[in-house]
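Reminder to self: tokens first, then the designed residues, so the page reads top to bottom the way the pipeline ran.
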């Protein structure tokens, strides 16, 4: 089914009253959710048309005695967050699809952060406080991050297992002298990357997606293809043909390892071909 078909199907569903439910909004709704969150530790204000975080959230759920563990403020119109951002037990935070240009200092307990599809330019100060426990980080579609000082901040996140930096205007990947020993999933599609050599920086990496960058055969390090943990590599949309890729030293090792993994997973990569590359 194409994109047009999907939209038409949604329109028909809406006319029939079968469309996806929309969130109720307003101060009374927010107040009830905050009251419930004070007991459950979970607050979702996604798609509430918020232009600012309601004061009641900070006043009743913040502070040293806060029990809030999960917070979802995604799909709003937030351009900033309160300076007094104090949720010491917060482990999961979704701030995606807003208009944020910066983040406050985050909880040291934070394990999952989604700040994708914002207007962030710098995340160094925000990530410094959360370096101890952060495991999953999505910064995708913040196109100005590539001009900032991203990698020194990421270097502090030694427990990171998943990193998404798609569409961030990046020209390099994991730039600097550091290692992320637990990183297994790295997504960096839709950037400006011309060379990749990260085997020593991500020694446990399993999945690497670099679609629609500027990689050629000379920009792919042999050490990466020989990384024993790597079993998935997406290179579609790069100025690189399948034949050129197959001529890179270490390619045979990678393809053999990928095939073994595919069989164990029941054909997970059966339709991917050779890393998404064209024959010509």
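Designed residues (280 positions):
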């Amino acid at each position: 089914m194409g994109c047009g078909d999907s939209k038409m199907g949604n329109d028909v569903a809406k006319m029939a009253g079968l469309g996806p439910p929309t969130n109720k909004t307003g101060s009374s709704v927010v107040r009830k959710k905050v009251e419930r969150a004070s007991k459950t530790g979970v607050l979702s204000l996604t798609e509430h048309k918020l232009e600012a975080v309601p004061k009641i959230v900070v006043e009743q759920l913040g502070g040293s005695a806060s029990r809030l563990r999960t917070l979802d403020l995604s799909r709003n119109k937030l351009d900033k967050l309160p300076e007094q951002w104090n949720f010491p037990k917060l482990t999961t935070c979704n701030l995606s699809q807003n208009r944020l240009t910066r983040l406050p200092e985050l909880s040291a307990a934070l394990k999952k952060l989604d700040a994708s599809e914002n207007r962030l330019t710098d995340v160094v100060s925000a990530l410094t406080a959360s370096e101890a426990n952060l495991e999953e980080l999505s910064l995708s579609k913040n196109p100005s991050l590539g001009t900032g000082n991203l990698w020194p901040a990421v270097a502090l996140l030694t427990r990171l297992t998943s990193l998404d930096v798609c569409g961030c205007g990046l020209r390099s990947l994991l730039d600097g002298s550091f290692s992320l020993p637990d990183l297994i999933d790295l997504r960096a599609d839709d950037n400006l990357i011309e060379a990749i050599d990260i085997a020593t920086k991500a020694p446990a990496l399993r999945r690497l997606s670099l679609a629609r960058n500027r990689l050629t055969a000379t920009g792919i390090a042999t050490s990466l293809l020989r990384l024993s943990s790597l079993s998935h590599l997406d290179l579609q949309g790069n100025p690189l043909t399948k034949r050129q890729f197959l001529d890179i030293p270490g390619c045979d090792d990678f393809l053999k390892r990928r095939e073994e993994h595919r069989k164990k997973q029941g054909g997970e990569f059966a339709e991917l071909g050779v890393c998404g590359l064209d024959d010509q």
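The radius of gyration is 21 Å.
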